[in-house]
Amino acid sequence: MALVNYAVTDRVAVITIDNPPVNALSPAVWDGIDQAVQRAVADREADAIVLIGAGSTFIAGADIKVFDTLKTKADSFARSAGTHALLRRMEDATRPLVAAIHGNALGGGLEVAQACHFRVATKDAKVGQPEVLLGIIPGAGGTQRLPRLAGAKMALEMATDGKPVPAPKAHAAGIIDQVVDGDLLAGAIVFAKAKAARGEIRKSREIPIPPDAAAAALAAADAVRASLRKTARGLRAPFAAVDAIEAGLRHGFDKGSERERELFAECVVSTESKALRHLFFAEREVAKVPDIPKDTPTREIKRAAVVGAGTMGGGIAMTYANAGIPVLLKDVDQAALDRGLATIRANYGVTMSKGKMTEEQVEKTMGLITPTTSYDGFDRVDIVVEAVFENMELKKATFAELGKVTRADCILASNSSTLDIDEFAKASGRPAQVVGHHFFSPANVMKLLEIVRGRETSKEVIATSLKLAKKLGKVGVVVGNCFGFVANRMLAYYMREAYLLLEEGASVEQIDRVLTEFGMPVGPFGMQDIAGIDVGARIRQYLASIGQSRAEGPQSAVPDRLFAMGRYGQKTGAGWYKYDAPGSRNRTPDPLIDQLAREEAAKRGVTRREVRDEEIIERITTALANEGARVLEDGYATRAGDIDVIYAYGFGFPRHTGGPMFYAETVGLDTVLARVKAYRARFGDYWQPAPLIERLVAEGRGLYGEPALA
Ligand code: 3HC
Questions:
Q1: Rounded-to-integer distance, Cα 239 and Cα 228, Å
Q2: Which of 20, 543, 654, 688 has most Cβ atoms within 10 angstroms of its Cβ?
Q3: 411: helix, coil or strand?
């Protein structure tokens, strides 16, 4: 079967793109479309042309893998001339050319459709220009044709936020000419014949922009830029998309197209784009676990239970209910349940106030959560998620009970963020069924699910967990069972450096500011105030009781002193910051922290100094990457990309850096290694280079295959 097929039906040439799974535009597909359109134009048997996708979609865009072959800006600029000329040839077809869209018309897919004379779509189809999410801009005329079809305001919105637009909305905006009920191809053929009968052809590039609309559009471009300065700090692509659209508004289609090519070429070779493309594929790669074949049997999860109605348990119950899965929510007494349910209701209240759910939807969803203080009904559930307090004995006791009250095939998952799940497995008496499902706070919002594989967890349970993660709207990443798994094991090093920098002379505000400027949604101290200082302190206490610590090196006593003062963060109205009231998010710096840091620095003989912003980034990212490399070498993560996905989704590590491992590679593994050695000389032997990094540097290789990223 060819990638692009040609047939004539009822005097309409039907060109079908057949490049599974998503009809991405590889060079051969571009050529195939080009040749087929020219063939149709010359075909005496055809009065009109329909372009349609085989399988489940129209075209999901250019083949993203091909961008890796564009090594320089000049190379990319030169190559795009061919694409632009091809689309112009299509648009110059002398018979009506109709795009018939189902599934998705994204990126280059929508640009191909824009170069057709008309577009029809199924009601559930989506169209979008998601290029900015890959660090690029529409590069096949989208910045020029879309404003002419949909108006500049909508084009600016679509090209800068990258979100797909449903067909009915696209129809109202003028992107789609007709929404087809029933069979798409049949509808498209009728539409095309009608256009042919009337001799109608409409070239998007020739749609005029009236002067008053152009003036309003320029103002809209300025407004979008102003808002991007707040929402897209540190990014280039969204601004480049606005520039390209603006160039077309000011100077016309041809000059605008040339500017688009220049800006696309600049973006496609940028680190921002390489990083975002890396994450695109890494996100899809995580679902592939080397020893769990695709055909591993999975179980359907129809009913669930959560033990523990605290912050995490409540959020997990919401996650199940949001996915339409009925869930029992158990806690020890009615008071604890009432508190948990009140928090859940308050969370849904916020969602409702933002217009994201109606009252009816909230009631229906909450109706799926059944509170209980007993194990009644646990024999009917397919999975239990344990979310009790982070305490080994308590968790073991819970698993021992769960082993008795659930069916033999029920999955027993633990939301522990650190502890050894093999201990729970042993306690349950059913180790093959036990797995870690580590959600991130707030569990109903954060997209990451660490799926922790115990020594005896069955393949079926892992495969089911991966499928379930998708159903719950999460990205599931399988990790090994070490203390803190991947996310929190590395986080201990991130936090160690934050605490030490504080003692050395940086302030809470400086460190949080520097990390948010780097692109984190919240700095380490702000994050801890949200998560609760008590959580980390209790884990440290537990570890101390078994003679361990989370990360080598000096342990700052400041967080434990805050814990001892009852300053647990936002919930108590004070933590690393002062808050207006318990639960409030309005914070102000607290001079007390500086005083505590001074005292602890003095005790450790640390001379306080001014800490540069760059040092904060360097220390923290180096600590993360060095530990990440150890996690990788120890086999607790499958690929460096899995760690990147974990950090992007679990902690909001800036996507445009590609994640902590990809970032290290862009900085240069040799630089990372040199920094670790310099820190060892400066601070002590607790800084040790990860052997994997030493080896890769010696061999001139990178974390993602060979050679090291340029
Ligand atoms: N290029 C190459 N491969 C692609 C691709 C693309 N544009 N889009 C999807 N794929 C691959 C995925 O990597 C995956 O491969 P795998 O099975 O080997 O892991 C497979 O297709 C299926 O994809 P998903 O798992 O993502 O399938 P879903 O059904 O969940 O989602 C989708 C489908 C919504 C189309 C989603 O794949 C998607 O968002 N794709 C990217 C869309 C995009 O960004 N398009 C713009 C590309 S850039 C461009 O067009 C530039 C132009 O302006 C010149």
A1: 7
A2: 654
A3: strand
Position in ligand 1 atom list of the atom nearest CA 104? 35
Of 670, 667, 669, 631, nearest in space to 647 by CA: 631
Token pair of 689 as six digits? 């280079």
Q: Measure 55 CA to ligand 1 centroid, in angstroms.
A: 14
**Active centre residues (catalytic):** 111, 131
Place of tokens 């239970």: 305
> Containing H/E element for 148?
helix 142-150
**What pLDDT is stored for residue 531 in this prediction?**
85
Among 19, 25, 64, 87, residue to substitute to test ligand 1 (most atoms within 8 Å of Cβ): 64
Supply the CATH classification number for the domain 304-483: 3.40.50.720
Q: What is the C-alpha separation between 422 and 215, in angstroms, rounded?
A: 66
Residues with CB under 6 A from ligand 1: 21-22, 24, 60-65, 104, 106-108, 111, 130-131, 134, 138-140, 142, 281, 284
Architecture label for domain 488-635+639-699: Orthogonal Bundle (1.10)
Neighbours of 188 (CB within 10 A): 27
Two tokens, residue 282: 């890494």
> According to the CATH classification, is domain 4-269 in 3.90.226.10?
yes
| Mean pLDDT in order along the chain per 10 residues (710 residues) | 93 98 97 98 98 98 95 94 97 98 98 98 98 98 98 97 98 98 97 98 95 90 96 94 96 97 97 97 94 95 97 96 98 95 94 94 96 97 95 94 97 94 96 97 93 97 98 97 92 95 98 96 94 87 79 90 96 96 92 97 96 98 98 96 97 96 97 98 96 96 74
The Å distance, Cα 450 to ligand 1 centre, comes to 24
pLDDT of residue 618: 98
Start and end residues for every CATH 3.40.50.720 domain found in the chain: 304-483
